[in-house]
């Protein structure tokens, strides 16, 4: 109410937070039953229009705060309440790692579910969606709110129900694919989503910025020959860098030189490589990109003889994703593995546009401030920093810059060795799988034990476990940037996780004795052993699938409400006992680690954006703990090399010092920062461009999907057919008007044929009419003809005509749209190759895209009219 008096968000909302806490103290005294009634009580306030949504904030948030306390014994901090309000007000809440964002998201989710809006909490991967949904189910069960979960493993038949829950946890990719699939349905009841009201995006920067560049694609097979890829590869193997082509590392692009073009043309025996009707240029450029810019074990890995993309920002493998426009096939050709047939895009959307569908959007992350401009301009989201609960005391030490990369890695390994000697846990972030393995090798030679976390499948399955261990004494963890994101590193170890892992390993161990006579060597202390001995292995042997043992144990431990089984109850008790036991040793260990300075985070290369560097730094010093971060760099790092410019190059020459000694110079730091800013704005520009281009097809997609939906939901599609038919007549008459007399005859003939009414009357009569008159007449004839057809069909089989209409309409819209997106993607490529002098290519793109769209619409209407007028019914007797 008095917002204008205050400026910082915490002050602005002080009063609300106070009110929440007042309600919270009141609710503490409620019985469980009374607490549950809160939901319907608050709902009725809004339904009766007694209150506006904002008026119920204090009581609603207090209710969920109390539910959280009752279920998991955690009392939310005021900064978490603040974060919740900021999310409710459609902003991005920047909250540091370990501040408890998982719980924060539940507050605005509850609030908005109370007003019967569909609420989606969107996460970056299945693991997080599942983990958070499981916790949410326990908490919301207290207050009668249903929680749904959608991951890639959710069956199609269950999805609708999950989306119908009050709050649904869903991964960003499933959300997108479901949206696309919903818009390809043939029957209304196949649709699974129920609208886009309110989304809370977890790790919002990862989804809206890092992933914004890769569109989601649903594709089908097409028939283009794979031999073209092989031939292109052969030719490009002969091409020499600099002579035949130049590499632009900055924009990940290849430019053919005049010599290169001539070489290809003579080799392929064609006249003009850039001829729009020749397919070759695309194949040659893709083969060159595959050769020079896409590196194995950095940009992709080979897994089961398949190219699997590694996300350049997170270092995670992106299962099932393929590079588009033939690039993936070019890489398959390079690696000499089976070339999967080229896919035809059936539907696609970028995350940017997917999330703009929501009426209300917000997000949370530890790092957004550096990109606040982008969030505001593209998504209209403000970034608001939420203060940490305890003051952050992390030491960010100045960068150490070595001349050569070799010396940098030696220095990092030496630092790890030193840390290992004293037992201080250290996390080293690397930018690629290759680099992480390089460091691992050096550590091997120094006999320093470590855990390696990168996108390789054998490592990824242990991800959560490795991160759980990363905060323990003597832990040295090498991780590609941001692997393990979303999992908190707890100093001294996480007693809950350790207890869970112990139980799982114990059971697995025992079961493998019973099943395979194979034992995992593991010794437990006497106390642990005596606790574990209580587990009845036979129960697991008989009742549980060993493949899912992790999941089973996880759900037994984390779900209070369905613990009816005595054995499961026992496991929960054993778990509690172990947690208690481990907590004591973990707490002690934490104290020791704090005396060593807390977790030490080492960066090995500055990333393309400060945000990613900050994410890495943010892994340490959580919740007021001590912690240190430092970046070890070399002048040979990509950032320096590609974006450093002249300053750094001349500095390199001038500096004449020992290779082993790091350089600390103010000029160097400054040019490093400016290089990084240059990269950030460079990529921002690319994303902005992409967005501008994408906006064109997005508007078209919206128009087509709206039309499609209208038809899908309509029970009376006749109007649509009449409209399409009249439009077709109108369009053809426009052509008729422009033609000479002979051609006029032909056009008229076409119209009559199209409408299937040519038999009924003479053309001469028509030709003598004025255009307007003719139009009116043809409209009328068309209706009469259609009426006849309808009554004829109706007599044969009632209801059939409506079914047929719907079928043709949807079929032709889909076909037209699919062909259209293919043309649009070609258009974009060609626009990129042409030069426009002063003219902005986007203007050209928009114009041509518009023409293509109109052509598509005309084509759809024409074919639907044609098909429906020509359709015949064959009755099988
Ligand atoms: P983030 O996503 O912000 O990094 P998480 O949601 O993973 O953080 O939470 C980190 C840890 O802090 C979890 O173990 C969670 O249970 C715990 N936590 C969250 N809120 C509180 C609180 N108010 N008091 C104590 N522990 C909390």
Structural summary, described in words:
By secondary structure, this protein is of the alpha/beta class. The strands form 5 sheets. The chain has a 7-stranded parallel beta sheet, with helices on both faces. It folds into 5 domains: 9-216 and 359-385, P-loop containing nucleotide triphosphate hydrolases (Rossmann fold, 3-Layer(aba) Sandwich), CATH 3.40.50.300; 224-340, SecA, preprotein cross-linking domain (Pre-protein croslinking domain of SecA), CATH 3.90.1440; 390-491 and 598-664, P-loop containing nucleotide triphosphate hydrolases (Rossmann fold), CATH 3.40.50; 494-596, no CATH class; 695-870, Orthogonal Bundle (Helical scaffold and wing domains of SecA), CATH 1.10.3060.10. The chain is globular. The chain has 35 helices and 21 strands. The structure holds adenosine-5'-diphosphate (ADP). The site of adenosine-5'-diphosphate has 14 residues, from helix 6.
> Which structural class matches the secondary elements?
alpha/beta
Which strand order spans the largest sheet, edge to edge or round the barrel? Answer: 3-4-2-5-13-1-14
Characterize the overall form: globular
- The level-1 CATH class of the largest domain: Alpha Beta
Which range does the strand content fall in?
Answer: 5-15%
Going by CATH, the homologous superfamily of the largest domain would be P-loop containing nucleotide triphosphate hydrolases
Bound molecules: adenosine-5'-diphosphate
Helical fraction: 55-70%
What is the CATH architecture annotation of the largest domain? 3-Layer(aba) Sandwich
CATH topology of the largest domain: Rossmann fold
Total number of beta strands: 21
Q: What is the end-to-end distance?
A: 76 Å
Return the domain count: 5
Rounded to an integer in angstroms, the radius of gyration calculated over CA atoms is 32 Å
Residue windows where pLDDT falls under 50 for at least 5 positions: 1-6
* Helix count, DSSP H or I runs of 4 or more residues: 35
Overall pLDDT: 86
Main sheet summary: 7 strands, parallel
């Amino acid at each position: 109410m008095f917002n204008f008096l205050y400026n910082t968000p915490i002050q602005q909302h002080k009063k609300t937070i106070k009110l929440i806490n007042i309600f919270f103290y009141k609710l503490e005294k409620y019985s469980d039953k009374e607490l549950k009634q809160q939901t319907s009580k608050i709902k009725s306030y809004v339904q009766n229009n007694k209150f506006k949504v904002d008026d119920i904030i204090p009581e609603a948030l207090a209710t969920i705060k109390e539910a959280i306390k009752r279920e998991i014994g955690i009392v939310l901090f005021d900064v978490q309440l603040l974060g919740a309000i900021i999310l409710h007000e459609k902003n991005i809440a920047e909250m540091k790692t370990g501040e408890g964002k998982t719980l924060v998201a539940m507050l605005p989710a509850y609030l908005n579910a109370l007003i019967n809006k569909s609420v989606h909490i969107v996460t970056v991967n299945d693991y997080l969606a599942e983990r958070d949904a499981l916790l949410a189910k326990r908490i919301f069960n207290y207050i009668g709110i249903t929680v749904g979960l959608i991951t890639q493993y959710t069956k199609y038949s269950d999805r609708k129900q999950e989306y119908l829950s009050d709050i649904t946890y869903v991964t960003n990719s499933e959300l997108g694919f479901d949206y696309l699939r919903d818009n390809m349905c043939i029957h209304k009841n196949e649709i699974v989503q129920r609208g886009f009201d309110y989304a809370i995006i977890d790790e919002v920067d990862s989804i809206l910025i890092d992933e914004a560049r890769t569109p989601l694609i649903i594709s089908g097979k097409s028939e283009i020959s794979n031999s073209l890829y092989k031939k292109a590869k052969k030719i490009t193997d002969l091409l020499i860098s600099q002579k035949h082509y130049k590499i632009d590392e900055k924009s990940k692009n290849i430019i053919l030189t005049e010599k290169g073009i001539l070489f290809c043309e003579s080799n392929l025996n064609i006249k003009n490589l850039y001829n729009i009707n020749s397919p070759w240029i695309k194949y040659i450029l893709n083969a060159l990109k595959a050769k020079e810019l896409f590196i194995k074990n950095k940009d992709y890995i080979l897994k089961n003889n398949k190219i699997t993309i590694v996300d350049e920002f997170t270092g995670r493998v992106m299962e099932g994703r393929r590079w588009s426009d033939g690039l993936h096939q070019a890489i398959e050709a390079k690696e000499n593995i089976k070339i999967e047939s080229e896919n035809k895009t059936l539907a696609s959307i970028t995350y940017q546009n997917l999330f703009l569908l929501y009426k209300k959007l917000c997000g949370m992350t530890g790092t957004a401030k550096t990109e606040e401009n982008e969030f505001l301009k593209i998504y209209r989201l403000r970034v608001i920093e939420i203060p940490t609960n305890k003051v952050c005391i992390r030491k960010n030490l100045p960068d150490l810059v070595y001349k050569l990369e070799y010396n940098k890695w030696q220095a990092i390994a030496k630092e790890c060795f030193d840390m290992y000697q004293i037992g201080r846990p250290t996390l080293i972030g690397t930018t690629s799988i290759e680099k992480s393995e390089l460091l691992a090798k050096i550590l091997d030679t120094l006999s320093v034990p470590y855990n390696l976390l990168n996108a390789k499948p054998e490592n990824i399955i242990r991800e959560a476990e490795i991160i759980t261990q990363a905060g323990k004494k003597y832990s040295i963890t090498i991780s590609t940037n941001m692997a393990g994101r979303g999992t908190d590193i707890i100093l001294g170890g996480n007693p809950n996780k350790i207890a869970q892992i112990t139980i799982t390993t114990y059971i697995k161990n025992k079961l493998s004795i019973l099943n395979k006579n194979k034992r995992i060597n593991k010794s437990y202390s006497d106390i642990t052993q005596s606790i574990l001995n209580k587990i009845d292995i036979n129960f697991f042997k008989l009742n549980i699938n060993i493949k899912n043992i992790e999941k089973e144990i996880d759900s037994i431990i984390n779900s209070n409400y369905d613990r009816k089984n005595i054995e499961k109850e026992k496991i929960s008790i054993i778990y509690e006992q172990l947690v208690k036991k481990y907590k004591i040793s973990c707490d002690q260990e934490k104290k020791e680690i704090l005396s060593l300075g807390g977790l030490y985070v080492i960066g090995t290369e500055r990333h393309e954006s400060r945000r990613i560097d900050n994410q890495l730094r943010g892994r340490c010093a959580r919740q007021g703990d001590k912690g240190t971060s430092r970046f070890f760099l070399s002048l040979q790092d990509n950032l320096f090399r590609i974006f450093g410019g002249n300053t750094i190059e001349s500095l390199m020459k001038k500096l004449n010092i020992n290779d082993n000694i790091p350089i600390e110079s103010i000029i160097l730091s400054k040019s490093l920062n400016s290089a990084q800013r240059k990269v950030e704005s460079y990529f921002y520009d690319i994303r902005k461009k992409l967005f501008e281009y994408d906006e064109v097809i997005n508007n078209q997609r919206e128009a087509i999907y709206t039309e499609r939906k209208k038809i899908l939901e309509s029970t009376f599609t006749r109007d649509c057919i009449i409209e399409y038919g009249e439009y077709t007549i109108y369009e053809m008459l426009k052509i008729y008007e422009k033609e000479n007399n002979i051609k006029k005859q032909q056009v008229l003939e076409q119209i009559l044929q199209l409408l299937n009414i040519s038999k009924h009357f003479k053309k001469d009569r028509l030709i003598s009419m004025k255009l307007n008159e003719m139009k009116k007449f043809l409209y009328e004839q068309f209706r009469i003809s259609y009426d006849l057809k309808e009554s004829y069909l109706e007599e044969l089989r009632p209801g059939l005509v409506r079914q047929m209409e719907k079928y043709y309409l949807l079929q032709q819209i889909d076909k037209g749209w699919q062909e259209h997106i293919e043309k649009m993607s070609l258009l974009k490529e060609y626009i990129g190759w042409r030069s426009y002098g002063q003219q902005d290519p986007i203007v050209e793109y928009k114009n041509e895209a518009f023409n293509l769209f109109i052509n598509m619409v005309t084509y759809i209407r024409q074919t639907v009219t044609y098909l429906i007028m020509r359709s015949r019914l064959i009755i099988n007797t």
